[in-house]
Amino acid sequence: MSKRIDVKDLNVYYGDFLAVEDVTINIEAKSVTAFIGPSGCGKSTFLRTLNRMHEVLPGARVEGEVLLDGDNLYGPGVDPVTVRSQIGMVFQRPNPFPTMSIRDNVLAGVKLNNKKISKGEADVLVERSLQGANLWNEVKDRLEKPGSGLSGGQQQRLCIARAIAVEPQVILMDEPCSALDPISTLAIEDLINELKDQYTVVIVTHNMQQAARVSDKTAFFNIAGTGKPGKLIEFGETQGIFSNPTQKATEDYVSGRFG
Amino acid sequence: MTSTLTPVRSKRSALTKGQLPKYAPLVVLAAALIVGAAILALVGFNAFGWGIVSAVLFAVGLVSWSAAVEGSRRAKDKLATCLVVGSFLVALLPLVSVIWTVLVNGVPGLLAPGFLTSSMNGVTGVYDNRAVEDGAPVLGGIYHALLGTIQITLLATIISVPVGLLTAIYLVEYGNDGRLARAITFFVDVMTGIPSIVAGLFAAAFFFAVVGPGTKTGAVAAVALSVLMIPVVVRSSEEMLKIVPNELREAAYALGVRKWRTILKVVIPTAISGIASGVTLAIARVIGETAPILVTAGFATSINSNVFGGWMASLPTFIYTQILNPTSPANPDPSSQRAWGAALVLIILVMVLNLAARLIARVFAPKAGR
Fold it and tell me: Which residues of chain B form beta strands (DSSP E)?
């Protein structure tokens, strides 16, 4: 239930503005890959190209190839909806649907697509997804309550449960802990460690300790200056990036000398 | 040593200036009312002048007392408070006065037997003359007009809501602020300012040309009203759809949900309370229109339950004709009693619609709570 992603020579644009230039990266299946780098260097933009969420913004487009187990996401005739149902996403700010209960939030991927599901199957799916997101014990007695009544950390785990309920191959996380306190962050990091047994996980983070704690491989992005495109500077084993980087910019960034 | 520890009561805190006592406004108000009455007594007393003179005296008295005791900053604060409260009362006065007048004049009409259940069919000046001269009950009612108003407004709503809501969805979700979207926004703004009689003339002319000259039915009136209603519905729905956070759309897309399903099942449910109350207010806005109905549906004295055929009465046109052409020209009082009763019913209708809007907003609002 997980696939690898290979990106070849990807350029990402907002209109005429080149935001990320010439990225080539290979993301292994069943691993955690972290993207680090200073603000505005294009980490999140690049992450959004991996499930075709980038093009939701007006004028946004990409050049190059993103291969999911060899299939190009940007090939002719590829339906972005199919892509997104295989590659799920968790956003920076928790965004449960305010009109739905906790249970309906988990089932959102099924119900919004009008797929028929029996009550028994739905119950199983809700319990499995919430347990997968380490949230089941906290909410099992109030599944019919609105999702917006949960705490921020619980809402974010609800969003993760919602993402894994559609059984994707890959889960993308865009700074999932930046709005959370240290305890909720720890809960999510533990969860990421468990998720990698089943899913390919890609996480954008500003927190280098977090990247060091959770990821197998780390990619460092940087930007030469405002108005210039972001670039992938270095990609390798997390251990290597943090202890023995090959590039001067990476070393400066991870050691805190800049950024 | 102990003396430094016990607080010195007699000394005023260094952090405060002089303060007016709590009862100061009441004292000034009483003084203003008495002095105002005295001044008015000199020039001839009337309640309206008494109120104005007292209000001015109150403001001047309170502000100058405050300036003397509390300093200029507090005095300015008191002045601003007086102005704000004064403006509020001025704004409220006509509203209260209207409701009071309609209630006083309308209740006898409303309570007349058969007022809500009978029409004006067969009610002639003879009956009205008898009612005034012999004290017989005032006959005739607004059933036909109430029925017409409800049918015309309902049909107008059925036309306007789909058109308006779909336009708003296009503008917010698909328009991308392109040329067409901007053109639509511009024309919607222009339509908002169309005088209602023009909408009526448009609908009348349109049906004269398409169906045949002299076509006056409830449906024509409904078209005229929907010309007035659509821009309001577009505007309010657009605002409501715009404030749905983009994060929710992205969350749905990321789950592999198609755009139209996202709009139908995430965006609209999130905004439905605002949309529903906007629609209800748009209905309240057109339910009292008189001129467009006069030129499109005419007016009738008998019950017509077919919106698509024949002239139709409505509450505003009923009021208009009863006042302007009393059933009995010699004794217009019964007619004016019926008109006031109809006005009261109209106000009650609008009020019920406003309450319904609030109720709908509350029922559909995204639930919070643990």
Answer: none
Structural contact between residues B306 and B221, judged by C-beta atoms closer than 8 angstroms: no
Please state the ipTM of this predicted complex: 0.89
- CB atoms A98 and B370 under 8 Å: no
Q: Does B178 touch chain A (CB under 8 A)?
A: no
Quick one: what percent of chain B has pLDDT higher than 70?
A: 95
Neighbours of B33 (CB within 10 A): 17
Beta-carbon separation of A109 and B255 below 8 A: yes
According to DSSP, residue B110 is labeled H
Q: What is the pLDDT of residues B95-154, one digit of tens each?
A: 999 999 999 999 988 888 888 888 888 788 888 888 888 877 888 889 999 999 999 999
Mean of pLDDT values over B163-178: 92
Instruction: Report the predicted TM-score, pTM, of the whole model to 2 decimal places.
Output: 0.81
What CA–CA distance (Å, rounded) separates B57 from B63?
10
Structure tokens at A162: 């919602």
Bridge partner residues of A110 (DSSP): none
Q: Three-state DSSP class for B12?
A: coil
- What's CA A140's distance to the chain center, in Å? 26
Tokens describing residue A159: 């969003």
The helix or strand, by DSSP H or E, that contains position A131, with its residue range, turns out to be: helix A119-132
Contact A148 B254 (CB under 8 A): no
